[in-house]
Structure formats: C-alpha cells, structure tokens
Design a protein that fits this description.
About 0% of the residues lie in helices and about 45% in strands. The longest helix is centred in the N-terminal third of the chain and has 8 residues, at about 245-255.
C-alpha cells in the first residue's frame, strides 16, 4: 500500500462563540484518521474522533469552541502498520493455548504407548496436567479441572496406568481449600475426572466472612475420601516438626513427593509422615503403610519390590511389609526414580545434574551416570541440568527428563533415545515476563525473568533460546537474590564501554552488567522490595543504593547506602539516559532519580539525595493521580493513572493501572490528558522523540498507539502467529518498544502469561523518524474571523 498523505488544517479563530465551526480538510487517499483541536501552544483541547475510516477527498470537521481564542485542527492519517510476528519463549505447537508448554513442570510419567504426562503446578491457562504424544505433540490438558476443582489447587506429582492418571494435589493456602494435600484420579484417554469409588464425604466450599478468620488446625490422613479424592493433609505447614531444616521443610510443606502405581495398588511417598502409603487404585481405600525417613521418590519393580529415595541421597528397596533390603547411599539429591525395560532402575540426581542407572553387573552393584551434567551460569544444552526434577522411561528405553530453570520461571521437557541422543525438547521460559534489547546488539533479547533469546529473522518471526542469565556463583538459590516481581519495562543500555540490563522489579531497579552469557549484578536502587538484605523488607521503607566497586557481583552490607526516608511506588522505569522515573504513590506525584555517574568499574550509580519531584501533586480540576511514568528522549514525560475526570471504575482488577493518559513537557507542565478507552496497565515510549507512546489494555491485551499530541491512531493485538490468544496484561512490565537501528521499524514486546510467552510485534511508523523518511505532512493555514463559519 502506498504511503498515505497527511493534511493538517490549521484553524485560527478569535472571540469565537458557541456556534459550531466547520473546518474542511482533504485526504489524498483513504485513511484511518484521528483528529483533535489544539491551542497555539499545542495543548490538546478536544479530541474530535479517533481511528475513523475516511475515503479520499474533501471532508469537514465540526467543533463547538468553549472559549474565545486561537485554535488549530490536527487530522492525522495514520500510515502505521502492525504485524504480529509471533511469540518468544515457548516451544509449544501450535502456537496457542492448547499447544503451549507450561513453565512449572514438576513431575513426569509415561504410559505403555509412549505418551507422556506432566504435572505442571500453577499454569495460567489451566494446564494443571498435560498429555503429549510420543513425538512430542500436544494431546490434551487438564483444562482447569484441578485449579477450579475441590479443592482449588495445583498438582505436583503424577503417575499413570492403563486407564487412569493419578495426581498429588496441593490446595491453595486459604479457606475453604485449607491447603489440602490429596491424590486425585483422572481418565487417561481424555483427562476427565474419575473420582475414586470408595466411601466419600463432601467438603465445604464456604468462603470465610469478611473480617473473620477461622482457626487453622492441621489435619492428618482421613479414613474416608473427600469429594472422591484420597485426603491426606490439611494445613501441613502447621504440623512440621520443630527445628526442621529448611531443605526438608520445603519438601514437607508439599508432602506427597512422588506416586507410582503397580497392579491395583497406588504407592505414595509422604515426606511429612515419613511413610510409603499404599491405596487401592480403584476405591482409594488404604491398603497399608511402612515407615521411611523423608521419602522423596518411589518406584515399584516387576517383582513388587518398592524402591524409595530417602533422606535426599539414599535409595533403598522395601517389601510391602516395610522390610528393607539393599541400600545405595551417597548419591546426592535424588528427586525421582523410574524403571525401564529389563527392570533397569534409573534415578534423577539433582545435586550432580545427572541421570543415574543402577549397574547390577558391577561388583558391587552401583549407580552410574548415563546422561547429563550440572548446568553452570549461561548453559543452554538440554543435557545440562539446572534443577533435574523428574525422569520417566518408556518400554523402548527412551528416557524423558524434566528440569526447572533457576529464577522465577522456566521448565524443559526432553525425550532421549536409548543411546541418549536428544529426540525432541519442549520448553517454556517466560511467565509474567517482558523483554528488550539494546541498540548495540538488537538481536539479543534479555527478559526480566533472566533468560536470553536470539532474534533470528524479523520477516518470519523466528528466534532461538540461548540460555539462562542468572549468576549462579553468587546466587545459587532463590533466597535473597535482590529480585522481586516485575514492575517495569526492562532496558538494555550501552554506558561507557559496557552493556547494562536494567530490571525494574518490586519498588526498585536492579542493574546487571552483561558479561558473556551471564548478567552480573552491578547496581541497585530500592526501598522495601527488595530490601537491603535482598528479600522483601518488613520494616519501614528506606531508600538505599549500591554499586559494585569491587567486582564481587553481590552487595556487601557495608557498601549499601541507606537514606532514612519514605516513598512508595508500584514500580520504577528507566529512560534512554539511565535516569529512573516513578509515580510516588505516597505523594501522588512524579519523581526522577538521575544517573549520578559511574563508579570505578564503570557501573552506573545513583544517589537518593539527587532525587527530585518532577511534577507535583495535581491540584487542578483534573486531579490526575499517576501510577506509571515513562520518559521520552525529548525530555517530555508520559504517565497514566486515575483522575477526577476519569475515575477508577468499581471492582477494577487492574489497581496498578489507569484510565487517564497524560503528557508533560520537560518542565513538568501538563500538555494534555485524555481518557483511555479502558483501564490500561503497561506503557512504553516509541523511540524517536516525537514517536508517541504505546499503552497496553488490561483486558483484551490490546496495545494502543498514541501520537505525541494525544491522539489514538491505532491498536493491535495477538494475531494468527499467536493463535489470536492472550491473557490479560496485568502488570507495568507488559509493553516494551525499541526501534531497530537497521531499518527504523519498532519492535514491540508484550506480556503474555496465559500461554507462558512474550508477544512480538513490529510497528512500521514512519512518523517516528522524519529525519530518515520524507514527511508525508502538508499544512494548510486558514484564518477564521470571529463568528465565521466554513461552508
């Protein structure tokens, strides 16, 4: 389609009255148009229309001036094109909700036909468990049957026989679900519920009354089924033995660590009870139990011996009466056991990152490694395991492995041949995530969940996952990482001789230095979340900063600079000059912290004493109350929030969002404020000064395109490349924009947590870079006397 010519009709009027003014304008070609009335200082007075399709030719705009003065009309004919290239961070096919790979795979099992089943913990799209064909294609998923069941909950262990799936389920930690720990049963052919056939009672689904708090009393195994499920615990965290080590307590809070089924018996490893429990697989009735210290895995061999991983590093064989036979110790951290053809026993050792096989031909018999090694920072290879969580073996000796990535999200499922060659792999790396690249390397996308992707072909939307970026040497666990929930747009900036990745999480910003495939912590700005200790603080919010002057990559408490002062914000954002911006919800105003300079190692530094209030609390009739702020390269500021004119709707789930979009000039003066068509939660400027701004809606996941003058000129949403599906945008970290320096087209990335991915769009908007492309605009000046009228 040839470029559309844009005509701006400028109307000058003085001492006008309330009579409507008709203002002509001409379009050279059909166009999607938006129009507004502005003062001579270019302040928006009124939006006349948005995104109206008009044919070529002469048109007339009408307006009732509110006051005497000089005004002009702007009509924008948008030439922008929007393309959904696809989504990043999920291997699932087809690229839709039914085909997606979950990010929280906890357990894996395989049936006699080679079909694979995974228990997936929390999955936004309701794939509580998922079935895959032998060649890795999606068959079906739970479709919320556990998450919306009784209790509402999520599965974390799975087993399968010829007819049924069995899942260990943990209910939510609130009434009326009471963190119930159960075994639930489902049909293998389609995943539909198949409650156990024994005597059962119904649970209460009564929500507690507002302000009331029931006494939480831990409960052990029930003698009857509950809602057709084997009921084992309520509130298990309240019955942990005193002084339990945290590594053990973590297992005991979700105590049903593993399941196996053999014949008519279901075997459950109960870490809190210290037992292997046995149940009838048809009725759910208890058939017996025996004691085992901290069992973490269970598998039954063809002759009926029950093999159990106990106390992390030991594997023992038991009879059903609890008699213990052979013992193998010193293995590391055994998270799963599975039998393959010929009664070959395999073990997943998370500590060494290896799959082990019991070599019965050795003297003495011993476990030997057959696949894998422990992953180190930056590893991507499928056989480098970060957290080896589960294994399964089919009747052809194909091996299945699952691993979890370090950080807030990421899981992989792989199939290996009997020769341990990779046959296929599925992975999901992004949940509640957003990514961005730097102008020095526009093909490397860093995500706020600490993953790295390579953008390959922008015409086809292809990409490749390159690995996890967490500095495991300094942060080997998920404790005190100085990371929190994503609350802003990630930025990648070249400062001096180094690239830095800025992650706004919690109420602060974490700055990482790119060192090969790893992000090394370089600077911190924060308050309460994370706190100076690296976790969420419980005391008064303090302002604090740190930079890595020694190259340690981790804060030394002595180096942290704390200011005894108060601020609150939902999140911060970073501009192209590394300045920090945020809406201070304590003062209802806009604040900024400039880059203070570089430390001795070239890391960016910040000083809370240099923070300043950019735009004070709005005391005008608008009463604008900002929630999110982004700075453009021309010094102007975009913000959204609530206002008296456009208040927050009742029962609004997007409390961090806004109904009012505003722009301020470089001095903090309000240029314009417009009503957003619905509550919005994400925002980023379009690079290029006058490029405008993109705003993400909560419901519908639409991205709205506004000009720098406040006119809505386009919107876009997931297309065929994403199966036309997306969940809500529900976070400030939901829209990011960057202009590719090679073709001047804008890459747009958006949160898509429903199918565990990041949406990828391209916006071709020549208006954003007039110095690179001829301007399509023509301006016609028209003088209108007082009380005059176009005819």
């Amino acid at each position: 389609m040839p470029p559309l010519r844009l005509f701006l009709c400028v109307l000058g009027a003085s001492a006008v009255n309330s009579a409507a003014l008709d203002m002509p304008f001409t379009l050279a070609e059909p166009a999607t148009t938006s129009a507004g009335i502005y003062t001579t200082q270019n302040k928006l007075v009124s939006v006349l229309w948005t995104m109206k399709q008009l044919p070529a030719g002469r048109h007339t705009a009408s307006w009732n001036p509110p006051d005497a003065g000089d005004y002009h009309l702007k009509v924008v004919a948008s030439r922008a094109t929007y393309t959904n290239l696809g989504a990043i961070g999920n291997s699932g096919q087809p690229p839709d909700v039914k085909g997606h790979t979950p990010t929280n795979i906890e357990s894996v099992a395989v049936d006699k036909d080679g079909n694979v089943y995974t228990a997936n913990g929390w999955d936004e799209a309701g794939a509580d468990f998922k079935a895959w064909s032998p060649d890795g294609k999606s068959l079906y998923d739970a479709d919320f049957v556990i998450r919306n069941g009784r209790p509402n909950g999520a599965p974390y262990a799975i087993a399968v026989d010829e007819e049924y799936l069995y899942c260990a389920v943990g209910g939510w930690e609130r009434e009326p679900w009471n963190n119930r720990q159960q075994i639930q049963r489902f049909r293998r052919k389609d995943g539909k519920p198949a409650p156990f056939a024994g005597k059962s009672e119904k649970s209460s689904t009564e929500e507690p009354k507002a302000g009331a708090r029931r006494v939480r009393t831990p409960q052990g195994p029930s003698e009857t089924l509950l809602d057709g499920h084997i009921q084992l615990y309520e509130w298990p965290a309240l019955s942990l033995p005193k002084d339990t080590a945290e590594a053990d307590a973590r297992l005991m809070r979700a105590p049903l660590r593993a399941i196996d089924v053999s014949g008519a018996t279901l075997y459950v490893a109960d870490a809190q009870g210290g037992k292997i429990r046995m149940f009838d697989s048809a009725t759910g009735a208890a058939k017996g139990e025996f004691g085992v210290y901290l069992p973490t895995a269970v598998a039954v061999d063809p002759i009926g011996q029950i093999w159990v991983a106990t106390d992390h590093d030991t594997v023992k064989a038991y009879r059903a009466d609890g008699y213990s036979g052979v013992t193998y110790g010193g293995l590391g951290d055994v998270t799963a056991l599975a039998f393959g053809p010929g009664a070959a026993l395999y073990a997943a050792d998370a500590k060494s990152g290896r799959v082990l096989k019991l070599d019965t031909g050795a003297s003495p018999a011993q476990f030997v490694p057959v696949l894998g090694s422990k992953a180190v920072s930056g590893d991507r290879a499928p056989d480098r395991f970060y957290k080896l969580r589960g294994i399964a073996v089919d009747n052809r000796d194909n091996l299945f492995t699952i691993q979890r990535e370090p950080g807030s999200s990421g899981a992989r499922l792989a199939k290996w041949s009997p020769e341990r060659k990779l046959l296929w792999e599925h992975f999901a790396t992004e949940f509640v995530s957003l990514g961005n690249y730097g102008l020095s390397d526009p093909d490397t996308l860093y995500t706020i969940t600490h993953h790295r992707h390579k953008l390959l072909d922008r015409a086809k939307g292809t990409w490749d996952y390159r690995g996890n970026t967490i500095d495991l040497a300094n942060f080997p666990t998920s404790d005190n990482t100085y990371r929190s929930d994503p609350h802003g747009v990630p930025r990648v900036l070249r400062i001096g001789q180094h690239d830095f990745v800025f992650h706004p999480t919690g109420d602060g910003v974490q700055v990482y230095r790119v060192e090969g495939p790893v992000l090394k912590l370089a600077s911190l700005v924060g308050g309460n979340d994370p706190s100076p200790t690296g976790d969420k603080g419980k005391s008064k919010v303090a302002k604090w900063t740190w930079s890595d002057t020694t190259g340690a990559g981790k804060p030394d408490p002595i180096q942290i600079k704390i200011t005894d002062d108060h601020y609150t914000c939902f999140g911060m954002d970073v501009d192209a000059r590394a300045g920090i911006w945020f809406a201070n919800t304590h003062t209802h105003s806009i604040w900024t912290i400039p880059l203070a300079g570089l430390d001795v190692r070239g890391n960016p530094t910040y000083d809370w004493s240099q923070a300043r209030e950019f735009a004070p609390r709005d005391k005008s009739d608008l009463a604008f109350d900002p929630n999110m702020v982004q700075a453009a390269t021309d010094g102007s500021i975009y913000a959204f929030g609530w206002s008296k004119a456009f208040p927050q709707p009742k029962n609004n789930p997007f409390w961090m969002g806004g109904t009012t979009l505003a722009r301020f000039d470089a001095t903090g003066a309000l240029l314009w404020a417009v009503e957003l068509p619905q509550p919005c939660v994400g925002m980023d400027v379009i690079p290029g000064g006058q490029g405008g701004v993109l705003v993400g809606t909560g419901k519908g996941a639409n991205i709205l395109h506004y000009t720098a003058d406040g006119l809505l000129i386009g919107k876009f949403q997931p297309g065929e490349a994403m199966g036309k599906q997306s969940g809500w945008l529900d976070n400030h970290a939901s829209v990011a924009a960057n202009r590719d320096p090679r073709d001047s087209i804008v890459d747009v990335f958006a949160e898509e947590d429903y199918a565990c991915r990041i949406a990828w769009y391209r916006l071709d908007d020549p208006r954003g870079e007039p110095h690179q492309r001829p301007s399509p605009q023509a301006v016609t000046n028209v003088h209108v006397p007082a009380r005059a009228r176009f005819v």
